[in-house]
Amino acid sequence: MIGMNMDNLFSIDCGEIYLREFSIDDVDAIYELTSQPEVYEFLQDWRSTREQRLHWMTNDEIPNNKKFIAAVPNVSGVNCLMLGIILKETGDFIGFCNTCIKEELNEPNREIAYAISKNFRNKGYTTKAAKGLIDYLFENTNVELLNTVVLPHNVSSNQVIKKCGFRYRGDIEIEDQTHYHYTLNKEDWKKQSRQDY
């Protein structure tokens, strides 16, 4: 279910968790999350000082979310939608799940990416979040193809991507590191969705 929460923030219900657009109140939670070695090992660009995080949130992430949401369904060329993964039971910010344009890939180059706190791993939350975002994009926007790139040694992330129906397309070099490149197109997602019911 898609809607707005009490704070008038865009959200997607994913069962035990929901995805919610970033708010300024998330700065400390994102800073703490991206300071965990288990996260910044794989998402080095997200590591920052708290001041940098506040600057990015205020000047980039929140305004970009508003632009993306306003552009739906025609999101071609609109950069990012950045969503927190919120645990319903407690309201805790436990991770994030995003879609952005990945400039290192050939068009169409919309990517999904995610991270979850070390304290909430191996519970299925990341897969639920990724599937929630994928479903939203294919059901509500003009996105026809999604990409993701994953480091080969990131075993958990590779498993999540496969559970979401992505197919391996080959290796790609990004910043002198080999990544696995996966894609999921709308037609394959539709077939997979029919099989899930």
List the helices and strands and how they pair.
Blueprint: E1 2-4, E2 10-13, E3 17-21, H1 27-34, H2 37-40, H3 50-71, E4 81-87, E5 93-101, E6 110-116, H4 125-140, E7 145-150, H5 155-163, E8 167-174, E9 177-185, H6 186-196
Antiparallel strand pairs: 1-2, 2-3, 3-4, 4-5, 5-6, 7-9, 8-9
Helix pairs in contact: 1-3
Residue windows where pLDDT falls under 50 for at least 5 positions: none
Give the topology string: H per helix, E per strand. Answer: EEEHHHEEEHEHEEH
- CATH homologous superfamily assignment: Gcn5-related N-acetyltransferase (GNAT)
Radius of gyration: 16 Å
Helix count from the secondary structure assignment:
6
Total domains: 1
The CATH topology comes to: Aminopeptidase
Descriptive report:
By secondary structure, the chain is of the alpha+beta class. The protein has a single domain (2-144), classed as Gcn5-related N-acetyltransferase (GNAT) (Aminopeptidase), CATH 3.40.630.30. Helices cover 36% and strands 29% of the residues. It has helices spanning 27-34, 37-40, 50-71, 125-140, 155-163, 186-196; strands spanning 2-4, 10-13, 17-21, 81-87, 93-101, 110-116, 145-150, 167-174, 177-185. Strands 1-2-3-4-5-6 form a six-stranded antiparallel beta sheet, sandwiched between helices. A three-stranded antiparallel beta sheet has the order 7-9-8. A hairpin with a 2-residue loop joins strand 8 (167-174) and strand 9 (177-185). Helix 1 (27-34) packs across helix 3 (50-71). The chain is globular, with a radius of gyration of 16 Å. The two termini are 17 Å apart. The mean pLDDT is 90.
